[in-house]
User: Fold this.
Amino acid sequence: MIAATATYRRVMALSGPVLPVISFFGRLPTAMCQLGSLLLVAQTSGSLATAGLVGGALAAGQTVGGPLLGRLADRHGQRTVVLAACWFDAFAVAALVAAALARAGTLPLALIGLFAGAAVPQIGPLARTRLVALAHRAGADDRLINTALSFEGTLDETSFVLGPALVGLSATVAHPAAALALAALLLAVCGSAFALHPTATALHPTAGVADGRRAKAPAARPARARMPRAVHGMRASMALQGVIFGACQAGITALTERLHQPAQAGLVYAAMGVMSAVAGLSLALVPARITLPTRWRAAAVALVVLSVPLLFVRSLGALYPVVVVLGVAFAPHLITLFGLTERLVPAGRLAESMAFLTSAVVGGQALALAAAGRLAEAHGPSAAFAVAVGAAVLILCLALGAPARQRAAAPTPAAATPAGSGR
Assistant:
């Protein structure tokens, strides 16, 4: 434990204490807007169908827009891209609040939701990319980089626990519009602070530097590097992780409603997120000799084994421990895929790839929530949980089918190893 603490101190020293704080609050709106838009539109329109359509449009926008924003950040640097995205998104969220309060029609609300989702500034994926860049610039070894990814994964998990909790509190004390107004404020203030932080210059867009592994290139832009085939399996695995999230959310909601305790759904889901965050932090204790492909397979096995008990849960007393234990497998799977992606993708496409993984989770979760919700309504909570188990089995198939050894992508032709990078 002492060694892990020392490693996390080294991670914090890479960027200083301010960046993790502003990146955490900057990514909170991503966790707040989905639930906040659902509650707001449902309350103002009186239609759950309209609310679901707006929420789906927001998720669709983020799924498509995330990789595009990541690609722009790879090409032009994070500062300009994040500044533009965070302010556009802040105005889009504010416009959604205004339109909902004015009781606008379904189509205008859905279009605004689509734009708000597409403009999400992707602070989580870009913070990962930036921290990895700083680690490589400092000549860090793979263990420190894995710990940095674990730290970022924990920030994500914590934000996705705290975000919905803030929305629920705001909706109870005041109005769902207050939660989205806070999200817009955080986007503008913390998003700008993240963009303007000095560490944004750790990435050099002209060279396509996304992780500090490459030196500055000539003025001519190098040819676009090809993505290794193995990356597609990782993206599919990440989308399936989103399916597990969505199916679990649908099943938990259905079960708590059946037990006449719907208010418990958020608490159960939060408990799962807290355990996942703890597991993510604990990854720093995993010995370096255990490779990332091995960790992927182990996490996949854990997802299958720990999700099966969901099929037999019938009471709230059983739901809590089963869901909490399942949370142990979430962060290790997510963080391992981020680590494998960092090893494999070309340096000039790392931000795009990190954003793609995050968008895959969002897309998988949105689709599963819609499909599993209908299954739960027609056949009970176990039907939704069966979707989660099926997704876990598919993740295991992908992990077992991946090569035992993954090689890092070759440098682009215009790239060279920078002096003092340790590489």
User: Anything to note?
Assistant: The chain has a mean pLDDT of 84.
